[in-house]
Amino acid sequence: MGERKASKNGGRLLGRRSLLMGGAAAAGLVVLAREDLVRLYWQAPGAQKPRTEGDVDFTKASWVAASPANYRAADRPDDYSIDMVVIHITQGSFDSAVQVFQNPAHRAAAHYIVRRDGHITQMIRELDVAYHAGNRDYNERSIGIEHEGVVEDPSAFTDEMYAASAQLTARICARYDIPVDRQHIIGHVEVPGSDHTCPGPHFDWDRYLRLVREARTTEA
C-alpha cells in the first residue's frame, strides 16, 4: 500500500512539473513569436514608425536633413538591432560635409556631424540605416558620427569636440545598451573592407572612452 501510494504521488508530482515546464516553454514561445512578429512588421513594405519632420534623437543637436539617397528608411532597433558606434573624420570643413550629405549623388552620409566648437548636427534619424561605413552589416547595426577635421591634423581634435561627441556617444550607448569599449565604439578604419583611415593616429581613444564613461555616469 505504501509503495503504491508513493508511486501515485510521484506520478502526480511529475505530471504537474511537466505541465508547468510545458506551460513555461509555451509562454516563452508566445513571447518569442510576438517579438518576431514585431520585427517582421517593421520590415513589411510601407510599415513605418510615426515620425515628426525635424525631430532629433539627441536633444542638443540641430537638424539638417541628408538626401534620402544617402540612407535607407528603417525602424531600428525593431528591424535591425543597434550595437555599435562608428567614429569618422570629415576630411574637410563642417559646411562641406553637410553639403556632401545633402547631395544625392554622394550615396553616403552619417547620422551626426560634430563641429570643432562642439556643435552637433543630426542629418539622419537613428531609426534609419545611414550609408556611412561602406559595409551593409555595419551600417545596419551602427550609428555613424562624423567629426570636422583632417586625419593628419592633430589640432582638429579640440576639447569642445571631444566633450560634445562623448556626450552624444554616451547617450547613444545608454539608449541601446551598448558597452562603452573599443569593441563597440570603433573607427571607420576598423570596419571590414574599409579603405578609410579615420579617425587616424591623433584621435585619443583613451581620453574619448573616459569622457564617454563619465558622461554615462553623469546621466545615470
Strand content: 5-15%
Query: Main sheet?
Result: 6 strands, mixed
Name of the level-1 CATH class of the largest domain: Alpha Beta
Mean pLDDT: 85
H/E element sequence: HEEEHEEEHEHEH
Organism: Streptomyces ruber
InterPro entries: Amidase/PGRP_sf, Amidase_domain, NAMLAA_amidase_2
Protein name: N-acetylmuramoyl-L-alanine amidase
GO molecular function: N-acetylmuramoyl-L-alanine amidase activity
Overview of this protein structure:
- By secondary structure, the protein is an alpha/beta fold.
- It folds into two domains: 47 residues; 158 residues, Peptidoglycan recognition protein-like (Lysozyme-like), CATH 3.40.80.
- The strands form two sheets. Strands 1-5-4-7-3-8 form a six-stranded mixed beta sheet, sandwiched between helices.
- Strand 4 and strand 5 form a beta hairpin.
- Helix 4 packs across helix 5.
- The N terminus is likely disordered.
- This is N-acetylmuramoyl-L-alanine amidase.
- It comes from Streptomyces ruber.
- Keywords: Cell wall biogenesis/degradation, Hydrolase.
- It catalyses: Hydrolyzes the link between N-acetylmuramoyl residues and L-amino acid residues in certain cell-wall glycopeptides.
